[in-house]
Amino acid sequence: MSMRSFFFLASLIFVLFGPWWGALIGAVLISMRYRAYEMVLLGMIADVLWLSHDLLWGIPVMTASAILIMWFFEPLRRELFVSLR
What we know:
- By secondary structure, the chain is an all-alpha fold.
- Helix content is about 75%, strand content about 0%.
- It is built from four helices and no strands.
- α1 runs antiparallel to α2 and α3 packs antiparallel against α4.
- The chain is globular.
């Protein structure tokens, strides 16, 4: 099992059964090393399971957070891990 799939499965377990901050930590860790498009999928799953439509007018907060995390860590990932490609 690769590190990418391990963090994906750990984040999925946190989305389904754990607190929200566990999924956030997993998203940050995997996004620092990989271009992690599966975090958007986890964000959509979390929004379907957790988001109340009365809260924040139904805005998909976790999906938007996953996209922002991926966008934020892109320059950092290119600078730090350019030699590992």
